[in-house]
């Protein structure tokens, strides 16, 4: 298969992720969308790694997976606290930074 | 007997070399031949075989480290609140230390000049390897033994001294951590690891000075100690980085390994500027840690911590870390400061000034621990001066003996405070006449004082005399005289301290009694060591055990001896006149003090008779100043003036500089405010403010606080940026 298919799939996933992050109100869904974006990047990395026959991309993908695991741990912790404090997982209500 | 049998380096070396038939001059270039490390041979790597414990010395770091975590997590639940773990770990450390010392001493001829240890790489970047490992030679073994002995006695002592303390468990945890960190510093095989240990002991010092942090004074003292030593550590850090480049310049590949650094510094292929700058930077680290002038001010304040901590950390072990560093990478100092060729250099100067400043200030203290703290500063000055004058062995020997008698004095003062003066350290208010009530404390304290003052044949006599003899022999005549003055002052202020504490009438309002055995037994053991430790290197009796055991035989500087003009450790022959002068000076100090305090002869009542003194007296209403004046009368105006000047210097010049800087800043600020700010800048600022307020209120509509809107804006900007890069910039 040509490289393009992978890139198009990754771009599609990435855009889905962006849409989710911007449009969803539920914190958990936002986190899932972030995961989608990260995995889109992973697909790109592995695709390029295969295309150029260089193992560095695979290593990076492994790194990203590890970081993503750590990130989702922290992220879910934050969402849990938001839910506990605001009585809903709706991150729309978080506007304390209003200037 | 006392003749010049001690032209050690040349004669002994030649004898050794012919005896063992290897390792002489021509061979040393050829390599180290794996098994055999004879005297004079250049050592380039550590030996990882031979006596077991010498190669597994990391255990001595590990055990107290584990003990720290155990006490921290489980200590409070245990019946003895955690001190059983601390005692178990410290006693196993003590046994291991003795085994290490035994194995080191009996290591045999094939390991004569070997350095034992293991090194592991924990970080690698290209050709650069950073290791963690052990470097066991005579110096490290000596230090391990000192730390283990003092730490054990302090652990035992603390179980009584801190009985029922609020943070008893944490105290023992911190002691364990301190022992582990100090051992890590001592066995370090590279300067980076040494730096880690160095900072860790600094942290423990901070924790233990501020042990009773409910009192603001104690936290202030802890912070002062931490920040002041950190100031010196800037130099240490710089110096450690520069040691890497010393090796790089000599071999082409940088390294932090102590062996490599010492070899590189002596190889003659490193530029003198680099060596000098490194030595200077490392000296700043020593000044900070070992309480040298002008960064000595933290050490007296550090007495806010519990007394056993003062004995362990601020007298015997941590404060000598600086001296240890100086001895460790001695070739850097030797070459950097040209120690072998000059009659004055930075190191000897710093040490010499510190001796006098510290000793003079010790006269004006009413707090017994502060007297001892200033005394420690002064004695550390002796060690640094010894190193600076090329008297490596003598300086390290003084470190060794000083650890025992100063720990003894601190623990003695703790015993007085614990049972005699009801937790007060004020000699004038709460002590006096305690010799009848506390005989054991009194006699051990007397032994410690005599050892510190340098009374023959106690420990301090041998080590101090050796420093002075070597300094004189190496051409540092001025500093030898400074040392004699220091010895005189030491004897005098310690006699004053003894008088105020143990003689006269009891001035406190409690019922003094002797401390119990948990406190007196460590005192007796230390008293015994204070008497005997000096005999390890009693050169007058032709005993050089310390020299034989501790001096590096392969790492440095012997290997260079065979090359022309190479560096080697000096051993001055024992000189009877110098020893007699040293003893006379010590007895003169004791005598003058004795006459003044006991017999009230000398300059007593000078304030009443002399108008000058009277005027001086009325001028100094403060009690602290009064004490300076009393001191003044013991030996006339000269010494009092020194004390006064150094105090004045402390208070006026050093503080003055700081105050001046502060005041100048305020003045500049005021000037700027009235002239530039109000008249010139304000107009501009006001118009700018109006402008930005308008812009701000406009922009604040976009600051909704909704994260998702921000996210959308972010992505939109990225898309725009991407489009710009794609279509416009191209």
Task: Label this structure with key terms.
heterodimer; A: 99 residues; mainly alpha; Helix Hairpins; 3 helices; 79% helix; 0% strand; B: 730 residues; disordered N terminus
Distance between the termini of chain A: 51 Å
Number of E strands of chain B: 2
What is the number of helical segments of chain A per DSSP (H or I, 4+ residues)?
Answer: 3
What share of residues of chain B is helical? 55-70%
Q: Summarize the biggest pleated sheet of chain B.
A: 2 strands, antiparallel
Assembly state of the chains shown: heterodimer
Low confidence ranges of chain A = none
Class derived from helix and strand content of chain A: mainly alpha
CATH topology of chain A: Helix Hairpins
How many strand elements of chain A? 0
**Rounded to an integer, what's the Rg of chain B over CA atoms?**
29 Å
Largest beta sheet of chain B: what is the strand line-up?
Answer: 1-2
Helices and strands of chain A, in order, run as: HHH
Largest interface, Cβ cutoff 8 Å: A-B, 14 and 10 residues
Descriptive overview:
The complex is a heterodimer of chains A (99) and B (730). Chain A is 79% helix and 0% strand. The longest helix of chain A is centred in the C-terminal third of the chain and has 31 residues, at 56-86. The model of chain A has no long low-confidence stretch (mean pLDDT 89). Chain A starts with a helix and ends in a 13-residue tail after the last helix. Chain A has helices at 3-23, 27-52, 56-86. The relative contact order of chain A is 0.13. Chain A has one domain: Helix Hairpins (Orthogonal Bundle). Chain A is elongated and about 50 Å long. With 99 residues, chain A is mainly α. With 730 residues, chain B is mostly helical. Chain B has a domain at 345-531 and 571-601. Chain B has 30 helices and two strands. Chain B has a two-stranded antiparallel sheet with strand order 1-2. In chain B, strand 1 and strand 2 (128-133) form a beta hairpin. The interface between A and B is medium-sized, with 14 and 10 residues.
